[in-house]
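Render this sequence as a predicted structure.
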Amino acid sequence: MKILKPLLFLLAIACISNVYAQEEKRFKIHTVAFYNLENLFDTINDPLKFDEASPIMEMKANRSEIYKQKVKNMARVIADIGADKANNAPAVIGVCEIENRKVLEDLVNDPLLLGKDYGIIHYDGPDKRSIDVALLYQKALFEPIDSSAHELLIYDDVTRKRVFTRDQLLVKGKLDGDLIHIIVNHWPSRSGGEARSRSKRVGAAKLNKRIIDSLQSIDPYAKIFTMGDLNDDPTNESVKKVLKAKKEKKDVPLKGIYNPYEKMFTEKGWGTTAYRDALSLFDQIMMTQPLLENDYSSFRFWKAGIYNPAYMFNKRGRYKGYPLRSFANGGFTGGFSDHFPVYVYLIKEVKEDDEKVED
């Protein structure tokens, strides 16, 4: 956590209305993030899961060394997200493409993250390859109150057999005293093509919307984040028609959803993953309207971003500009993930009797 010095912070967010330099306001800042960890699997074959299809299990040698380096690479990225503004790693971060709790324990105990004292919220899901979602949180900043896994029931359009895919993880807790809800997602892939698989992601979006609606029926002013690898862009049916996510903050009604990543995708051409020379922005963090208000007595949205420093993407060759993934052509590249992480900054005004600005 960092409390930004007044003038520097005010220059950075001059676009926020009703904030004036002469008022010498002080703000806390926290980072909320999401990262697809690209097949963070251990080296142990689970006879109850199809984990032998994971890239690391397909390797013939040096699995332990590769696993250790993979964990270290993931820890490096997580430690860096938000550090330039918040002077800290994410207060909370949703993750996907992880095998089990053990790989998360190895991750949070890496030397780069150990001092952050991350807690773990994870449920074993029904995915046949044991690909799960989870939430990591700094215990000093986030206090979990409740959590639940929500099963997605979807079926193949042709065979009508059930498709076993990832649960949606719902976590309720207090971020530095403010009550928030976080939904972590990893929606069905585009296997078989976007059109053929579209109904599965629409089904995932409908489940997501039911979760959000249930929270808002209890409290219309609930601060809700829904984040994840959606395998859909911000303009696809699942996001625009089912969730009804808005591109502009001014268009978001009380129970509506804002997607800061739509403008990045449609106006700037940014993405978080690439395939066949096309960028996609599958990784997104959306939020409900109460997080957009201008009363900074509690945490509000400041801005969103894609974390893609130079060390995380290919510099040359056919895949120049792509994320520098961990696994390719049957081997370990030494890279990170085939997705860039995404993040949002939250800010909250600090009164004089709350905390002093750090030197």
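Summary. The helical segments are 6-12, 63-80, 83-86, 101-108, 111-114, 194-218, 237-242, 261-267. The longest strand covers residues 26-40.
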